[in-house]
Amino acid sequence: MDEGATVPFIARYRKEVTGGLDDNQLRLLEERLGYLRELGDRRAAVLKSIAEQGKLTAELEAAIGAADTKQRLEDLYLPYKQKRRTKALIAREAGLEPLADALLAIRRSRRSTAPPPLLIRPKALPTLRQRWKERGRF
Questions:
Q1: What would the pLDDT profile of 72-126 be if each residue is shown by its tens digit?
Q2: What residues make up the domain containing 99?
């Protein structure tokens, strides 16, 4: 299969290599081989990611090595999975959180001393509808 041979070709012309397996059995083997290769690639990526974080222990490495399904592997990786890097996270990493806190504190203090917003429109300010009527657009 790695050499590019199709399942029907292998079933017909390579019976001595496969021990006489039929098409269905070879297709199942091909699917399983693909799954196991994907699992191996994902396992390597998970181990690399956790090792880069400095959180890889011998027990965790053994558990990841023993994971026989992708779901089990992802369950083991979930606590160590990197979260999405949001703009806020990038700003925190750059050390801007104290600045943001200070700006929010200033805004809150100004908001508490500001006069309440006008709830009633002053008579001197015409509404948009009145201006349109004056210009003949309404």
A1: 999 999 998 888 888 888 888 899 988 888 888 888 887 766 555 555 555 655 6
A2: 88-114
Name the domain count of the chain. 1
CB 130 within 8 Å of CB 136:
no
Domain assignment of residue 4, yes or no:
no
* CA-closest candidate to residue 51, choices 80, 30, 75, 28: 80
- Pseudo-torsion of CA 28, 31, 32, 36, nearest 10°? 170
92 lies in some domain: yes
The answer to the question of residue 95 being in a domain is yes
For residue 109 the two structure tokens come to 């203090």
The alpha carbon dihedral of 84, 88, 90, 92 has a sign of: negative
On whether residue 28 sits in a domain, the answer given is: no
* Tokens of residue 74, six digits: 């992802």
Q: Interhelix angle for 58-66 vs 23-53, to 10°?
A: 170
**pLDDT classification of 2: cutoffs 50, 70, 90:** confident
14-39 pLDDT per residue, tens: 788 788 888 888 899 889 999 999 99
